[in-house]
Every structure is written in C-alpha cells, then in structure tokens.
Write the structure tokens for this entry.
Amino acid sequence: MALVDKCAAIVAMRHTRSEVVTASVDSVDFRSGVRVGNILVLNGRLNAVFRSSMEVEIEVHSEDPLTGDRHLTTRAFVTMVAMAADGRIAPAPQLAFATHDERERAAAAETRRRERIARRA
Ligand SMILES: CC(C)(COP(=O)(O)OP(=O)(O)OC[C@H]1O[C@@H](n2cnc3c(N)ncnc32)[C@H](O)[C@@H]1OP(=O)(O)O)[C@@H](O)C(=O)NCCC(=O)NCCS
C-alpha cells in the first residue's frame, strides 16, 4: 500500500509540479500474492484531472527475477489533491487527451468520482 501511495504521489506531482495529498484509495484489488524474492514493478497513469483532485491508476506487477515472468498483483485507483505552497488546495492543470483510449479512461474515472462523492455524502 505504501508503494502504491508513493507511486500515485509521483505521478500527480509530475503532472502538477506541486505538493499533493492522498484523498482516497479505492478499488485495491489483490489479484495474486507476491513470492519472497520477486520484484515489484509499479506503473502509474493519470486517468483524469477534475479540479484540484485527480485520479491516478496504479498497477503492480510481480516479476520473477530468474525467469522475468510477470503477473498483475494489484490495481488501485488513488485520488490525489494538488496543494499550493501555502498548504491550500489548488487547481491542477487540466489533462490533454490524445487518444480515444485516454478519453475512455477519463470517462470511467469521472464515473468513479461520482460514486466516491456519493459515498461521502
Ligand atoms: C483531501 C483533502 C485535502 C480534501 O480537503 P477538503 O477540505 O475536503 O476539500 P474539498 O472538499 O474542497 O475537496 C478538494 C478536492 O478533494 C476531493 N476529495 C475530498 N475528499 C475526497 C475523498 N475522500 N475521496 C476523493 N476525493 C476527495 C474533492 O472532491 C475535491 O475535488 P475537486 O477539487 O477536484 O472537485 C483533506 O480531506 C485532507 O487533507 N485529507 C487528509 C489527507 C491525508 O492526510 N492524506 C494522507 C493519507 S495517507
């Protein structure tokens, strides 16, 4: 979990070039266990930027160092919030979409955001 959070923070900070905080982590899905000695490979992707918040998707693969075989261990959706230097919540730069796939991911993220907001209400 700590690695997932760090990876999401890196993705969000690279986008905003600001401090960020973790607002929520959801859909943590432990698909398979990790064997001792395996290498964890984390990939993060920014799915959508809302106002100050953004959804980062993290995939964790477990790699066998002897064979190179990899399998998906965990997928998580992390909401990070951009912060200004004075510690206040700040708008995040909007995301430019280049592909249909990116637009679809953003639409799915928007649906998850609505669900999160409904859960908080
Ligand atoms: C996240 C946090 C900054 C939000 O502050 P807030 O006073 O609720 O501010 P707002 O209501 O204006 O929300 C700011 C944004 O965060 C989002 N947000 C707030 N709580 C959220 C939650 N639980 N899940 C997802 N998004 C959330 C809001 O939707 C809003 O997004 P938007 O600007 O894109 O519309 C605040 O709750 C906080 O600091 N939490 C503690 C964070 C922390 O300690 N993280 C470390 C955990 S390991």
